């Protein structure tokens, strides 16, 4: 089983949190809303990888003011690829509190949509299990 270290930003701006909708046909959580993030590359420093992932997935116009390590977690997930094949991956999630100074997001093809969501509205989204666990731990969703 392959292992991946995933850097995951919990991005906040003016009390709202950034969620991204995964494509319906691929990924670990097809069609569900999630936090952005992705795998560290070989030899990459953690914060460097986090900022690279934010820029690649959310665009260079989104300005991150602060990055603070928050928590970590692990689990085993099954990833579905565009050709329909699947793979089990042991994932280590490193989760960071990030504050954005703007909402200038331009998602790449890893997502279908994005939304800035106030905590009171988070339950209205079909959140994937990993995101739900993270938001509960942060106190943004009821336990």
UniProtKB/TrEMBL annotation:
Name of the featured protein: Nudix hydrolase domain-containing protein
Co-factor requirement: Mg(2+)
PROSITE patterns, A to Z: NUDIX (PS51462), NUDIX_BOX (PS00893)
Origin species: Roseibium aggregatum (strain ATCC 25650 / DSM 13394 / JCM 20685 / NBRC 16684 / NCIMB 2208 / IAM 12614 / B1)
Keywords in alphabetical order: Hydrolase
Taxonomic lineage: Bacteria, Pseudomonadati, Pseudomonadota, Alphaproteobacteria, Hyphomicrobiales
Pfam families listed in its UniProt record: NUDIX (PF00293)
Molecular function (Gene Ontology), one example: hydrolase activity
Nudix hydrolase domain: residues covered: 1-139
